[in-house]
Amino acid sequence: MAASNEMTINLVVLGRTQTGKSAAGNSLLGSSDFESRRSPRSVTTRCSLGRSCRISGITRRNGCESALRVQVLDTPSYPHSDLSKEQVRDRVRSALAHHFGKEGLHLALLVLRADLPLCPDERDHAAQFIQELLGPRWKDFTAVLLTHADIAEEAGFSEEVYLQSTSSTLLSLLSSVHHKYIFLDNQKSIIKEQRAIVLRKLLNFIRQNNYQVLLLKHSKE
């Protein structure tokens, strides 16, 4: 926290190619800091940090309104079309230590597509990768961000129906991260009101975690 009336939250987005990871980062920032487009290969190859302007009307602390700043670290996807797992892991580890080494990380956001099924192998690979990055407490500091919720809704799946109909694989993953998940409508994510709803949910996750941060050090192992 920079001042008593201002709070900064540090986030990193992780996920597979074409899940909408960079687009989700842009939605959280309310900007277009990260390159996001459809492509037959992975678009993001390096980590980059985006910072939002001061956001008012989102949160209150100690009875007073606090301005919010959001910092989002965009990362190469895993699996990646051009980088090995080790290359992606080392780049993300280094960037986490560089950008959040002193202030700490509030949440890692695992980005999945709500309109595509989650296979057991994909869940296991994602969980293993995040654990390698964050360590044994990764479940406490990870939330699932389900993008393309608008496509799922067009197919007749409201959030409630979706959770009743989804695979045991996804339900198991959501349970492992203490049911920290958010549905992101890609058509509405740029709307100010929708962004405020998502940010409030993230702040609630952070509050449930007693505002703890995960301190990360660069490892060459």
TrEMBL record:
<feature type="domain" description="AIG1-type G">
    <location>
        <begin position="6"/>
        <end position="221"/>
    </location>
</feature>
<protein>
    <recommendedName>
        <fullName>GTPase IMAP family member GIMD1</fullName>
    </recommendedName>
</protein>
<dbReference type="Pfam" id="PF04548">
    <property type="entry name" value="AIG1"/>
</dbReference>
<dbReference type="InterPro" id="IPR006703">
    <property type="entry name" value="G_AIG1"/>
</dbReference>
<dbReference type="InterPro" id="IPR045058">
    <property type="entry name" value="GIMA/IAN/Toc"/>
</dbReference>
<dbReference type="InterPro" id="IPR027417">
    <property type="entry name" value="P-loop_NTPase"/>
</dbReference>
<keyword id="KW-0342">GTP-binding</keyword>
<dbReference type="GO" id="GO:0005525">
    <property type="term" value="F:GTP binding"/>
</dbReference>
<feature type="compositionally biased region" description="Polar residues">
    <location>
        <begin position="21"/>
        <end position="30"/>
    </location>
</feature>
<feature type="region of interest" description="Disordered">
    <location>
        <begin position="21"/>
        <end position="41"/>
    </location>
</feature>
<comment type="similarity">
    <text>Belongs to the TRAFAC class TrmE-Era-EngA-EngB-Septin-like GTPase superfamily. AIG1/Toc34/Toc159-like paraseptin GTPase family. IAN subfamily.</text>
</comment>
<keyword id="KW-0547">Nucleotide-binding</keyword>
